[in-house]
Amino acid sequence: MDVSATQGGTVKIDQTIPTTYPAILTVNSGVSVRLEAIPASGYEFTGWNGDLTSQDNPATLVISCNKEVIASFSQKTHRLNIQVKGAGSVVPSAGAHSYVEGTVVDITATPDTGYRFDGWTGEMGDASSASTTVTMDSDETVIATSLRSSSPGCY
Question: Model pTM?
């Protein structure tokens, strides 16, 4: 039996984590082997490939002949939804964007002429600064708000 893991994780085979991959094991026919995919930080388990095709984790495989099993992992991604309230633009543009977990995204709001930047709503570095950052550790929604500027002497 050969067990491998793609980048981003390891496989526990019957409670033991191999030191190298592929892990080559000699297992008697009819014996059940318990496989558990363990994602590294920032990764997620996406499924088993090869002679075991499943999303189950842990999974049990009954050995009947030579088997090759691969645990697949992918980097976690999160969605950043950027909105504008008032009049103006943002960079990145308004809408939904996808980023790998841990990415620090620079965001900038620019109010239209006759408006002033009033702040951000959401989880970011400095909500009062037109240029700030968002750390992608979960799905986030941020809103840039601009208000109409008032001229002195007008009520």
Answer: 0.72
Count Cβ atoms below 10 Å from residue 153 Cβ, excluding itself.
5
The per-residue b/e assignment along 24-38, b for 16 or more CB within 10 angstroms, e otherwise, is eeebeeeeebebbbb
Q: Are 79 and 96 in contact (CB under 8 A)?
A: yes
CA 96 vs CA 18, 78, 140, 149: distances in Å: 40, 10, 10, 29
How far, rounded to the nearest angstrom, does the alpha carbon of residue 138 sit from its chain's CA centroid?
A: 7
List Cβ neighbours of 30 (8 Å cut-off, separation of 6 or more): 62, 63, 64
pLDDT of 33-56, one tens digit each?
999 999 999 999 999 999 999 999
Determine contact, residues 40/58, Cβ cutoff 8 Å: no
